[in-house]
Amino acid sequence: MKSIEYPIFHTPLIELIINEVIEMHSYSRFLFLFILTVLGAVWGSQAGAQTQSGSSLVQGECAACHAVSASQLTEKGRMAQKGPALFYAGTKYRRDWVMKWLQDPVRIRPGGMFAGNHTIVTEEGDEIDAGSLVPHPRLDAKQAIDVADYLMTLTAHADVVRAQEYKPKKVSKRMGAMNFNKFKGCSSCHQDEPEYGGVSGPELYTAYSRLKADFIVAYIRNPLVWEGVSLMPHSDLKDKEIYKLVHYLKLISGEE
User: Fold this and answer.
1) Cα separations (Å) of 162 from 11, 181, 213, 234?
2) Candidates 1.20.1730.10, 1.25.40.180, 3.40.50.920, 1.10.760.10; correct CATH number of 162-256?
3) 141 or 3: which leads in pLDDT
4) What's the pLDDT band for 27 if we cut at 50, 70, 90?
5) Pair 156, 70: CB distance under 8 Å
6) Continuous segment of H or E residues that includes residue 157
7) What is the per-residue pLDDT for 255?
8) Distance from CA of residue 81 to its chain's centroid?
9) Among 51, 24, 50, 47, residue whose Cα is nearest residue 35
10) pLDDT at residue 99, as a whole number
11) What's the mean pLDDT when you consider all of the chain?
12) pTM given for the model
């Protein structure tokens, strides 16, 4: 029998399987298709269970320290948070980074979510009491995958991100650092290298590795869209100036 082409199937392997099925006797064809149906149901249930497992972990465990809905971001709630909001995690984070970080978490916010909660006065000035900072739990590989997959489904505010907006360009490290530290004053709250800069915001020397580029642009453009009680100022920068900052973050994250 002449083989039949099925434009809807995009791989030679699938087309080969279909044409082999056509050559089968009716009973064999029925048995083969029945097995495929069962396997499809199993695969689908496994994917659903994985998402459900991630959902249970996030809603049951992560919610103790993170906001999993916008309604939790009251002024009082923001100050009490121990970790960043997760209800727009799928819009914000790179999945592979999340999966790896959850298995081997390192501190991203030197002063915690609200540095005032961890600041002590010393003779040499104010310092962060590192002992008051809560370490992030370490997940095993399966848990990390399940949680990462679930977080990618949380895409609040995706409508304010302009897809494919950011176009990477090379930037001089010297000029980029000057723009970051002096012209824009970002180092008042953030570090662009370990132990250099402010501690009230997350470090940014790994920002490009963990955050989606278009999200970074959208967040700098107007932080209050994402969190009405954000401590990040709305600087009203022109897009050209925002892109310059992202070019620099890409460079210092080692993504050049």
Assistant:
1) 32, 27, 10, 18
2) 1.10.760.10
3) 141
4) low
5) yes
6) none
7) 75
8) 18
9) 24
10) 99
11) 87
12) 0.79
Q: Which residues contact 244 (CB under 8 A, 6 or more apart)?
A: 171, 176, 179
- Cα–Cα distance for residue pair 178/171, rounded to 1 Å: 12
Q: Give 31-85 pLDDT, tens digit per residue.
A: 655 554 544 554 444 545 555 699 999 999 999 999 999 999 888 888 888 999 9
Neighbours of 146 (CB within 10 A): 24
What would the pLDDT profile of 136-171 be if each residue is shown by its tens digit?
999 999 999 999 999 999 999 999 999 899 999 999
Which residues does 239 contact at the CB level (< 8 Å), separation at least 6?
217, 221
| Cross-strand bridge partners of residue 127 | 120
> Cα–Cα distance between 12 and 10 in angstroms, integer?
7
The CATH T-level fold of domain 9-156 is Cytochrome Bc1 Complex; Chain D, domain 2 (1.10.760)
User: What is the C-alpha separation between 58 and 61, in angstroms, rounded?
Assistant: 6
Rounded Cα gap, residues 197 and 175, in angstroms: 17
Kindly report the CA angle at 182 between 179 and 188, in degrees rounded to 5?
Answer: 110
Q: What residue spans in the chain does CATH classification 1.10.760.10 cover?
A: 162-256
Q: For residue 98, what are its two tokens?
A: 């999340």
